[in-house]
Amino acid sequence: MKKLSIILTVFWAVILFALPCTAAPRAVFVDSTFKFAPLPEGEKIIHEFVVRNTGDTPLSITNVLPP
Fold first, then answer.
1. How many CA atoms lie within 13 A of 45 on its CB side?
2. Which DSSP helix (H) or strand (E) runs through 12?
3. CA-to-CA distance for 46 and 50, rounded, in angstroms?
4. If phi over 0 gives left and psi between -120 and 50 gives alpha, with beta otherwise, what is residue 42?
5. Chain centroid to CA 51
6. Which of 62, 54, 67 has the alpha carbon at shortest distance from 24?
7. Given 3-state DSSP classes, what are the helix, strand and coil percentages for the chain, each rounded to the nearest 5?
8. What's the CA gap between 32 and 62, in Å, rounded?
9. Which of 65, 67, 59 is nearest to 28 (CA)?
10. Which domain does 43 fall in, by range?
């Protein structure tokens, strides 16, 4: 009986540790596109894209380079 208990405990431990971790951040753009109106040549335009984290862990945005 003791062997069976140990075997079942080890079996459940292996099963529980083998389950994949599904917690992850998820970046979602509020507006994924922006339509630029016709502009005179040389005119600068700025638009900010809003990013929301809909995941269940913190979102870290790194290695962003200017255009």
1. 9
2. helix 2-18
3. 13
4. left
5. 11
6. 54
7. 25, 10, 65
8. 19
9. 59
10. 23-57
CA distances from 60 to 45, 47, 63 (A): 26, 21, 10
- The predicted-structure confidence for 3-39, as pLDDT tens digits, reads as follows 777 887 877 776 767 666 678 899 999 888 888 888 8
- pTM as predicted: 0.50
Q: How far is CA 30 from the centre of its chain?
A: 15
Task: Decide if 14 is inside a domain.
Answer: no
Domain assignment of residue 6, yes or no: no
Domains identified in the chain, total number: 1
Does 16 reside within a domain? no
